[in-house]
Protein backbone atom coordinates (compact mmCIF):
# COMPACT_ATOMS: atom_id res chain seq x y z
CA UNK A 1 0.00 0.00 0.00
CA UNK A 2 1.27 3.44 -0.96
CA UNK A 3 -1.03 6.20 0.25
CA UNK A 4 -1.24 9.88 1.10
CA UNK A 5 -3.22 11.30 4.00
CA UNK A 6 -4.79 14.74 3.51
CA UNK A 7 -6.66 16.58 6.24
CA UNK A 8 -6.80 19.92 7.97
CA UNK A 9 -4.73 20.32 11.13
CA UNK A 10 -6.35 18.59 14.09
CA UNK A 11 -8.28 16.04 12.03
CA UNK A 12 -6.63 13.10 13.76
CA UNK A 13 -4.06 12.34 11.07
CA UNK A 14 -1.46 11.06 13.53
CA UNK A 15 -3.82 8.64 15.26
CA UNK A 16 -5.32 7.33 12.04
CA UNK A 17 -1.96 7.16 10.27
CA UNK A 18 -0.45 4.95 12.98
CA UNK A 19 -3.41 2.57 12.83
CA UNK A 20 -3.47 2.44 9.02
CA UNK A 21 0.30 1.96 8.76
CA UNK A 22 0.18 -0.89 11.29
CA UNK A 23 -2.71 -2.54 9.44
CA UNK A 24 -0.85 -2.52 6.11
CA UNK A 25 2.62 -3.12 7.59
CA UNK A 26 4.07 0.07 6.11
CA UNK A 27 5.91 3.02 7.66
CA UNK A 28 4.02 6.17 8.62
CA UNK A 29 5.97 9.11 7.22
CA UNK A 30 4.86 12.35 8.87
CA UNK A 31 6.54 15.46 7.50
CA UNK A 32 5.57 17.30 10.69
CA UNK A 33 7.29 14.68 12.85
CA UNK A 34 10.34 14.67 10.57
CA UNK A 35 10.59 18.46 10.82
CA UNK A 36 9.98 18.54 14.60
CA UNK A 37 12.75 15.95 15.04
CA UNK A 38 15.13 18.24 13.15
CA UNK A 39 14.02 21.23 15.27
CA UNK A 40 14.54 19.31 18.54
CA UNK A 41 17.98 18.18 17.41
CA UNK A 42 18.82 21.76 16.31
CA UNK A 43 20.03 20.56 12.93
CA UNK A 44 20.63 23.09 10.16
CA UNK A 45 17.31 22.07 8.61
CA UNK A 46 15.61 22.35 12.01
CA UNK A 47 16.79 25.93 12.44
CA UNK A 48 15.37 26.82 9.01
CA UNK A 49 12.05 25.13 9.72
CA UNK A 50 11.49 26.51 13.28
CA UNK A 51 10.40 29.97 12.13
CA UNK A 52 7.86 28.52 9.71
CA UNK A 53 6.40 26.17 12.35
CA UNK A 54 6.07 28.98 14.89
CA UNK A 55 4.07 31.10 12.44
CA UNK A 56 1.97 28.17 11.23
CA UNK A 57 3.33 28.62 7.71
CA UNK A 58 4.37 25.82 5.39
CA UNK A 59 8.06 25.09 4.96
CA UNK A 60 9.43 25.98 1.51
CA UNK A 61 8.81 23.36 -1.18
CA UNK A 62 12.47 22.59 -1.82
CA UNK A 63 13.09 21.69 1.84
CA UNK A 64 9.93 19.60 2.07
CA UNK A 65 10.61 17.73 -1.16
CA UNK A 66 14.17 16.82 -0.12
CA UNK A 67 12.94 15.40 3.20
CA UNK A 68 10.07 13.50 1.55
CA UNK A 69 12.19 12.05 -1.26
CA UNK A 70 14.63 10.54 1.25
CA UNK A 71 11.85 9.19 3.49
CA UNK A 72 9.88 7.60 0.61
CA UNK A 73 12.99 6.04 -0.93
CA UNK A 74 13.90 4.51 2.43
CA UNK A 75 10.33 3.25 2.99
CA UNK A 76 10.20 1.65 -0.44
CA UNK A 77 13.45 -0.19 0.26
CA UNK A 78 12.31 -1.41 3.66
CA UNK A 79 8.66 -2.31 3.03
CA UNK A 80 7.65 -1.49 -0.53
CA UNK A 81 5.03 0.95 0.72
CA UNK A 82 4.32 3.99 2.85
CA UNK A 83 1.64 6.22 4.33
CA UNK A 84 2.69 9.82 3.78
CA UNK A 85 1.12 12.40 6.08
CA UNK A 86 1.73 16.12 5.55
CA UNK A 87 2.78 15.99 1.91
CA UNK A 88 1.88 17.36 -0.52
CA UNK A 89 0.59 20.64 0.85
CA UNK A 90 0.07 22.42 -2.48
CA UNK A 91 -0.30 21.66 -6.20
CA UNK A 92 3.36 22.35 -7.00
CA UNK A 93 4.43 19.80 -4.37
CA UNK A 94 1.85 17.31 -5.72
CA UNK A 95 3.18 17.58 -9.25
CA UNK A 96 6.82 17.34 -8.16
CA UNK A 97 5.95 14.50 -5.77
CA UNK A 98 4.30 12.59 -8.60
CA UNK A 99 7.41 13.04 -10.78
CA UNK A 100 9.66 11.77 -7.96
CA UNK A 101 7.30 8.89 -7.14
CA UNK A 102 7.38 7.75 -10.77
CA UNK A 103 11.21 7.80 -10.65
CA UNK A 104 11.18 5.73 -7.45
CA UNK A 105 8.44 3.33 -8.63
CA UNK A 106 6.38 4.60 -5.71
CA UNK A 107 3.23 6.26 -7.10
CA UNK A 108 0.25 6.23 -4.74
CA UNK A 109 -2.59 3.74 -4.72
CA UNK A 110 -4.92 6.07 -2.81
CA UNK A 111 -5.29 9.46 -1.15
CA UNK A 112 -7.31 9.40 2.08
CA UNK A 113 -9.03 12.66 3.01
CA UNK A 114 -10.19 13.08 6.61
CA UNK A 115 -13.00 15.64 6.73
CA UNK A 116 -13.52 17.80 9.82
CA UNK A 117 -15.17 21.21 10.42
CA UNK A 118 -13.25 24.37 11.34
CA UNK A 119 -14.99 24.55 14.74
CA UNK A 120 -13.92 21.01 15.58
CA UNK A 121 -10.36 21.71 14.42
CA UNK A 122 -10.21 24.75 16.72
CA UNK A 123 -11.57 22.80 19.69
CA UNK A 124 -9.19 19.88 19.20
CA UNK A 125 -6.06 21.95 18.65
CA UNK A 126 -6.66 24.34 21.55
CA UNK A 127 -7.14 21.31 23.79
CA UNK A 128 -3.93 19.72 22.41
CA UNK A 129 -2.03 22.98 22.88
CA UNK A 130 -3.03 23.14 26.55
CA UNK A 131 -2.26 19.47 27.13
CA UNK A 132 1.08 19.31 25.28
CA UNK A 133 2.29 22.91 25.50
CA UNK A 134 2.78 23.10 21.73
CA UNK A 135 3.79 26.55 20.49
CA UNK A 136 1.92 26.01 17.20
CA UNK A 137 -1.49 25.44 18.87
CA UNK A 138 -2.62 28.98 19.77
CA UNK A 139 -5.95 30.35 18.49
CA UNK A 140 -4.26 32.87 16.19
CA UNK A 141 -1.87 30.28 14.75
CA UNK A 142 -4.67 27.72 14.32
CA UNK A 143 -6.79 30.23 12.37
CA UNK A 144 -3.79 30.98 10.18
CA UNK A 145 -3.08 27.27 9.63
CA UNK A 146 -6.71 26.69 8.61
CA UNK A 147 -6.51 29.56 6.12
CA UNK A 148 -3.26 28.18 4.69
CA UNK A 149 -4.89 24.74 4.43
CA UNK A 150 -7.94 26.14 2.60
CA UNK A 151 -5.96 28.20 0.12
CA UNK A 152 -3.00 25.90 -0.54
CA UNK A 153 -3.90 22.31 0.40
CA UNK A 154 -7.67 22.00 -0.18
CA UNK A 155 -7.24 22.38 -3.99
CA UNK A 156 -5.43 19.03 -3.88
CA UNK A 157 -8.76 17.33 -3.24
CA UNK A 158 -9.92 18.14 -6.79
CA UNK A 159 -6.50 17.21 -8.19
CA UNK A 160 -6.58 13.72 -6.66
CA UNK A 161 -10.31 13.28 -7.30
CA UNK A 162 -9.56 13.95 -10.98
CA UNK A 163 -6.88 11.25 -10.94
CA UNK A 164 -9.33 8.76 -9.39
CA UNK A 165 -7.25 8.40 -6.20
CA UNK A 166 -9.32 10.29 -3.57
CA UNK A 167 -11.46 8.72 -0.84
CA UNK A 168 -13.02 10.79 1.96
CA UNK A 169 -14.04 9.84 5.50
CA UNK A 170 -15.92 11.89 8.10
CA UNK A 171 -13.29 12.35 10.84
CA UNK A 172 -15.72 13.79 13.40
CA UNK A 173 -16.98 10.30 14.23
CA UNK A 174 -15.62 8.05 16.98
CA UNK A 175 -11.94 7.28 16.42
CA UNK A 176 -12.53 3.55 15.89
CA UNK A 177 -15.28 4.24 13.33
CA UNK A 178 -12.96 6.58 11.41
CA UNK A 179 -10.29 3.87 11.40
CA UNK A 180 -12.73 1.20 10.23
CA UNK A 181 -14.09 3.37 7.41
CA UNK A 182 -10.59 4.51 6.40
CA UNK A 183 -9.28 0.95 6.17
CA UNK A 184 -12.32 -0.19 4.18
CA UNK A 185 -11.94 2.71 1.73
CA UNK A 186 -8.21 2.07 1.28
CA UNK A 187 -8.75 -1.67 0.81
CA UNK A 188 -11.26 -0.89 -1.96
CA UNK A 189 -8.74 1.42 -3.66
CA UNK A 190 -5.98 -1.20 -3.53
CA UNK A 191 -8.39 -3.78 -4.93
CA UNK A 192 -9.30 -1.42 -7.76
CA UNK A 193 -5.61 -0.78 -8.46
CA UNK A 194 -4.79 -4.48 -8.56
CA UNK A 195 -7.46 -5.27 -11.18
Reconstruct the topology from this structure.
Elements: E1 2-6, H1 13-24, E2 28-30, H2 31-40, H3 44-55, H4 61-78, E3 82-85, H5 91-104, E4 110-115, H6 118-132, H7 139-153, H8 155-162, E5 166-170, H9 175-194
Helix pairs in contact: 1-9, 2-3, 4-5, 6-7
DSSP summary, beta strand count: 5
Tally of separate helices: 9
Gyration radius, in Å: 16 Å
Just name the CATH architecture.
3-Layer(aba) Sandwich
The order of strands across the largest sheet is 2-3-1-4-5
Number of domains: 1
Distance between the termini: 14 Å
The top-level CATH class is Alpha Beta
Q: Roughly what percent helix?
A: 55-70%
Q: What structural category arises from helix and sheet content?
A: alpha/beta
Order of helices and strands: EHEHHHEHEHHHEH
CATH superfamily: P-loop containing nucleotide triphosphate hydrolases
- The percentage of residues in β strands lies in 5-15%
